[in-house]
Amino acid sequence: MKIGISKISFFVPKYYLSLATLAEARGADPLKYTNGLLQNKMAVAPINQDIVSMAANAASNILTEEDKKDIDLVLFATESGIDHSKAAATNLAQLLNLKSEIRAIELKQACYSATIALYFAKGHILQNPNSKVLVVGSDIARYGLETDGEPTQGAGAVAMLITKKPKILVLENTYAFNTSNIYDFWRPVTMDYALVDGHFSNEQYKAFFKTTFEKYQEKSGLTLADFKAMTFHIPYTKIGLRSLQTIAKLSTHPELFKNFEYSTTYNKEVGNIYTGSLYLSLISLLENGKLKSKDRIGMFSYGSGAVAEFFSGILVPGYKKHLVKDIHKQILKNRQKLTFNAYAKMLTDIPKNDVLVEYEDDQTFQLVEISDYERKYMKKA
Ligand code: CAA
Fold first, then answer.
1. Mean pLDDT for all residues in the chain
2. Is the pLDDT at 243 greater than 70, yes or no?
3. What is the pTM of this model?
4. Which of 10, 212, 314, 316 counts the most CB atoms within 10 A of its CB?
5. Half-sphere CA count of 335, side-chain side, radius 13 A
6. Among candidates 112, 120, 163, 119, which has minimal Cα distance to 139?
7. How many domains are there within the chain?
């Protein structure tokens, strides 16, 4: 049975900081961010957008009433959890008005967990061929003010509908994975901001890519020549490019490099969205690139700490018809640029309890209140 992605969409908050503004405030050369990291902007979440509202906004771009009836499993990938116990998937299911006869769970392993969610979704559909699974990755990447990681922050969510006979991408059955207990990036439960050993994390990312891509080739019998595009987890674009350069040369594989550009068009404007980052890159490739049906796409998922996986998908004939490119263009176009001071306030304004949020903007789903540590959301009529 072929199983894979039938629908896919992202949501990002409507505010962003230009990295040129950040460079000016930090006395840094703006070229370090635009050419050194290959990033232009980063999305910043206001107080009324948390991981649940962002996930609901992403999912509502693609789900029909029929999908909602057929979904019986919600897998919520995040490393920005809002509760140590309760899964954000339960809040999401209610906000989306899903039926109660579903399973709903939250998954954590840094930026990797949306990838295992796809694997779990496949296993579920193998046992229940008529079911549809909603997979979301939703995160707010905060390193904090005046940290090395500051230019690599971001916020956003990706939602995917996984079914049999997929309309966009068939997930192939070869997976190469690796786990190692390291501290390259982590966030202890008492902390709002991530801890990171930046240069170590870069080295680990590249080493895991080498290991998993080699293993994938060994397991599948495929080689680089079998791929039309390689997509990566994109904490910032340069690290994806550097990784691609370890397996391909521009002179011999120009198509892979062109497709890498397409696959990072959106990520450059959004920054790191952790669990959704690889899938934002996939959307960017599909919507901006010129891939044909049956083309194979490689996917490298990396979650610090660390678990990594290399896997692949084959494009379905007519896949372009099932993309929601216009919605995504609108989301990016309608954003507002922040001043440095507005960014600094927004980044550090992290709601905990006894918060009443003004219903102030035009986003469909918003957080409106936290009282007695219960979160309440609103859907714009
Ligand atoms: N003009 C042009 N380029 C410049 C420049 C200038 N004036 N100044 C520096 N550069 C270039 C450097 O040469 C370097 O490029 P290369 O990688 O091609 O050599 C690039 O800009 C970055 O420079 P530095 O390494 O000196 O930058 P830094 O010390 O400030 O650290 C960072 C960069 C490690 C990415 C840091 O921002 C960070 O810690 N970020 C968070 C961690 C992270 O994203 N890690 C990625 C792997 S872990 C992961 O993937 C999980 C996750 O989501 C976090």
1. 97
2. yes
3. 0.98
4. 10
5. 26
6. 112
7. 1
